[in-house]
Structure formats: structure tokens, C-alpha cells
Specification:
- The complex is a heterodimer of chains A (153) and B (94).
- In chain A, 78% of the residues lie in helices and 0% in strands.
- With 153 residues, chain A is mainly alpha-helical.
- In chain B, helix 3 (36-48) packs across helix 5.
- Chain B starts with a helix and ends in a 14-residue tail after the last helix.
- Classes of the chains: A mainly alpha (153), B mainly alpha (94).
Chain lengths: 153, 94
């Protein structure tokens, strides 16, 4: 079982495309298992030789043919849905958007109903009433201060 | 005289040259015999040294598919070239 799994992952291990733990497992296994180590050596040699040959000789029209094939290959274009965009967002982003919406709704509809609206007419009335009250209080106080209550000459 | 001054490893005998040339041809034939899907990925990986992620983007398929295709390509080549992979070859001629 272990040998089968290792041999399936040897190619990726050779390319350095396995994670740290898999690399560690395979490395340990190769030290113990001669059969897998031999297979790995063969793959390494094959890799070196094929690189040498492909680079030395080149591959005539390879890129042109590849491009043609990739163009011919139908590309499945997915229309992104709004829900997909929402799902791809990280949690802090989702929380920030939700909080923003809640605050927007609160300050647009609920907060104005909770606090009394400021009317300029009401303010004017209140102000004048308060002024009248002050004048009414101040008016009798003036003659009182002029009256001499000491009884002196 | 000149041959004696060269290190032993760099001297390739005519027999070895012939064997290496044959090996080069065998490898080329083996690579050519791969199916298009495997060959393209294998060649791009070998020549361009592209990562699995880059290959997945080019071929518009998951990285797991790239991994399994490269594994299949290498296994196919390994089985075909098995008699040649157990020896050390010097200066492979193509």
C-alpha cells in the first residue's frame, strides 16, 4: 500500500510539487525501500535524459501545434453570479459588508424616528418664549435694586 | 597524446557514442509515441520547467489532472526505456 502510494507521488516529488509532510514521508520511505528508490533513480535519469534531448534537439512546431490545440479546445466560460462573489469573500469582508448595511438601514430609517426632528419654527417659538421669561424675571429686579432699604438719610 | 591529458570520465569510446546515439533516438521515439495530452504537458514541464499551477492554467484543468498526467507520461516512458535506465551514459548523442 505504501509503495503504491509512494510510486504514484514520485513524479510530483521529483518535480518538487508535494507538500512538506508528503516529501518527508517519501524521503523516509526511499531510504528504506530499495524497489522504490530504484524506481526513483530511473525517473531521475529519465528526467535528465529527456531534458537533454528535448533541449538539444528542440521540438519543431511544438508551440504552434500546442497553440492551435489550445485555441480549438472549447473553453467553458462561467458567468460569475453575485452569490459566487459573496462566497469567495473572506469572513472579515462579509462581516464588514453586513455591518455597513445594518448601519445604513439604521441611520436612514430607524434613527430619524427615534429622535425628534428639529423645526426652525419650533426653535424660534421656544427661543422667544425663553427670552420673554428672562425679561419678565429681569424687569422687576431693576427697581428693587434702586430702593434703599437701609433706612439711612 | 592529447587523450592521455583528458580526465577519464570525459573520454567516450566510439561504442559508447553509438549506444548513446541509439538511446537518444529511443527516447525521442518514446516521447513522440505519447498521446497528445500527455506529450504536451510532459514537454512543457521538461523544457519550460513550468509549475503544476501554471500548467493547470494553460490547459484549464485542475492541478490534480496535471499531476496524474505527468505521472502517467513518466510511467509510460519509464516502462518503454527500462533497459536503458539502469546504466550510466556519458554524453548522450541525439
Amino acid at each position: 500500500m505504501r509503495c503504491e502510494w509512494v510510486s504514484e507521488n514520485l513524479s510530483a516529488y521529483l518535480d518538487g510539487e508535494v507538500n512538506f509532510f508528503i516529501r518527508l514521508i517519501i524521503k523516509r520511505h526511499l531510504k528504506k525501500c530499495h524497489q522504490c528508490a530504484r524506481r526513483f533513480n530511473q525517473l531521475q535519469r529519465l528526467d535528465r535524459l529527456s531534458k537533454l534531448i528535448l533541449i538539444k534537439r528542440g521540438t519543431p512546431d511544438f508551440y504552434e501545434r500546442l497553440q492551435e490545440r489550445l485555441v480549438l479546445k472549447p473553453v467553458k466560460k462561467k458567468n460569475p453570479r453575485h452569490w459566487d462573489v459573496w462566497l469567495t469573500l473572506p469572513y472579515p469582508g462579509k462581516i464588514a459588508i453586513a455591518l455597513g448595511l445594518i448601519l445604513l438601514i439604521f441611520f436612514s430609517f430607524i434613527y430619524p424616528r427615534l429622535t425628534p426632528t428639529l423645526s426652525i419654527n419650533q426653535f424660534e417659538e421656544d427661543y422667544l418664549r425663553s427670552r420673554e421669561f428672562v425679561l419678565w424675571v429681569e424687569e422687576p429686579s431693576l427697581p428693587l435694586t434702586l430702593i434703599d432699604t437701609s433706612g439711612g438719610s | 597524446m592529447l587523450l592521455n591529458t583528458l580526465p577519464e570520465e570525459s573520454v567516450v569510446s566510439p561504442m559508447q557514442l553509438l549506444e548513446n546515439k541509439e538511446l537518444g533516438q529511443k527516447i525521442r521515439l518514446a516521447i513522440d509515441s505519447l498521446s497528445d495530452g500527455l506529450k504536451e504537458i510532459f514537454i512543457l514541464r521538461e523544457i519550460e520547467d513550468l509549475s503544476y499551477k501554471d500548467l493547470a492554467e494553460i490547459f484549464k484543468c485542475p492541478e490534480g489532472t496535471i499531476k496524474s498526467r505527468l505521472f502517467r507520461a513518466r510511467e509510460e516512458l519509464r516502462k518503454k526505456l527500462l533497459p536503458y535506465l539502469n546504466y550510466n551514459f556519458k554524453g548522450v548523442e541525439t
